[in-house]
Amino acid sequence: MAKNLLFFCLLLSLLALSLELAKAQMAPAAFVFGDSLVDVGNNNHLPVSVAKADFPHNGIDFPTKKPTGRFCNGKNAADLIAEKLGLPTSPPYLSLLKKKDASYINGVSFASGGAGIFNSTDSVFGQAIPLPKQVDNYVEVHKILVQQMGSSGAEKHLSKSLFAVVIGSNDLFDYFGSSKLQKQNTPQQFIDLMATSLKAQLKKLYEFGARKFMISGIGMIGCIPAERVKNKTHECDEERNFWSVKYNDGLKAMLNGLKSELHGLSYSYFDTYSVMHNIIQNPSAYGFNEIKAACCGLGELKAKVPCVPISTYCSNRKDHVFWDLYHPTEATDRVIVDTLFDGPSPYAVPMNVRQLVSS
């Protein structure tokens, strides 16, 4: 009798816990697409890629204190979005391929350091998974979910899930670093092509069940340490910033058009550029005091050598905006994710992510 009672109490507490977890989950799954800003370890599994972060001092503030393939001192934006949603971080797609009992139910990350909207973007980095291939990988996952949940079950599950897309910076870096690309297209033509190509990939995701999109605009790429160090005065590269803004304008217009084109699609566009601009203009308001130099690296602004095991790193990562010559610190990512999740317009339009997943 006592045994039965104990078993019954245990069952009740497990049921209460699962109800609590279900209540805490704001979306059933998060599918992440993008570049190194949200890569949680896919590139670890690419044999010849040089765009990797699976070595110190990356991950020094991660819960395990170990490098995981995140280009950050701790958690990156993908981890923090999952936290807000009440979900575990979506695991890297390539890590699941080797597992027989892999679960895709809470989402997957397809993001890859060095990736761009175009297939060609990864040529500079040796190997990355460009967005069209990431979307193809998602189509494979979609097949598995349909097998596991049935067609209507998968459709319902995916319609409530969050599809986060953080990409575009590498395409612009690629353009400005390539005389060949500059001969083929003016900057305006190139950013128009970026928006058109991204639209095609979003339509493909929609075709395979995606309905709720969080799309991030490009940040102030002219103000990263890698760009500042090229300038004697360490000022931002205004041309790169100008075209980032122009691309973001085109992206917003494209998303607005897409919403009227595709029934049931809703989205939150996040203005990364404006939030980064606020941080750089008024760092102390956000708890920062170093906006130019990287925390981890070597040389001028710690931006002459990337964050590798021989690099030195700052003792207080919370007061640096940038972790390495390209990527933000966890502290910066927290400001960004707090704003995209609960921020007002114009930072998150036409709604923030909390409103998106609740709608």
UniProtKB/TrEMBL annotation:
GO molecular function: hydrolase activity, acting on ester bonds
Signal peptide: 1-24
GO terms of biological process kind: lipid catabolic process
Keywords: Hydrolase, Lipid degradation, Lipid metabolism, Signal
Source organism superkingdom: Eukaryota
InterPro entries recorded: GDSL, GDSL_Est/Lipase, SGNH_hydro_sf, SGNH_plant_lipase-like
Keyword Lipid metabolism on entry: yes
Assigned protein family: Belongs to the 'GDSL' lipolytic enzyme family.
Protein's recorded name: Lipase, GDSL
Annotated source species: Corchorus olitorius
